[in-house]
What we know:
This protein has three helices and four strands; from the N terminus they run αββαβαβ. The protein is of the alpha+beta class. The two termini are 38 Å apart.
Amino acid sequence: MLDKTINLCYSIRTMNEEKNYCIYLHAVGKKETTGWDGFDESVAHFTTSAEVDSIEWEEAKMEAVDQRWEQEKRYWLDYRLGKVSVEVGREPWDVMSPGYEYHKGRTHAVWEEVK
């Protein structure tokens, strides 16, 4: 009986866990400027426990996109949404990575595209 209780608690906990997502925004046309004219793409991050493509998930995604657009519209005329990824885990930095000395002992996110 105890095993079933533990399994049930685990599945309820994992069902309600929030997941980290990111979506790419790509510039569609840039404003004429003198000097630096912004990035060609940008990444919006959001966290939600909602199912992918549900209304709540779309609202969280568009809130993050709108926040990112507020920063990028200074340089961009418009944007196109790119791929969406979900964080599926974390792994340690590789010793051969140029950032290893700075990130020693830390982990970085592993992302998988949402289909």
